[in-house]
Amino acid sequence: MPRINAKKARCGDLIFDSTGERDRYIELKELERRGDIRYLQCQPRFVLQERFKNLFTGKWVATITYTADFQYTKTSPRDRRFTDHAVVEDWKGYLKREQRLRIKMFMFQHQNIEFVMTGPASKTKTGRKR
Fold first, then answer.
1. What residue ranges of the chain have pLDDT lower than 50?
2. Domain membership of residue 98 as a residue range
3. Residue 91 falls within a domain, yes or no?
């Protein structure tokens, strides 16, 4: 989904939806190089609801998915309680209502995965600029 006023940005062979997302990828690659995180992935996709057949109309209702920007394993030798846990991160310049709903559905279904929002939209509770 294209972002509002965002320009595509490149880092090596990868193309990102915005310069902010690209810059965050570069930061995460450095963290991976230092050993603070492992198994960095771009654009992980999660199924929030499987497709199903409507009993009344007989028509199939499409699968609902959520695609984050990054997924990685966080390593923290200083805090043993949270060592080696999965993190899903989304860089958002602006957060639409549908995106908020998908994030809430993801957080409910994957309570064992830490969700982190970065970017300007992460500065407010709702993701909206005031």
1. 1, 126-130
2. 36-123
3. yes
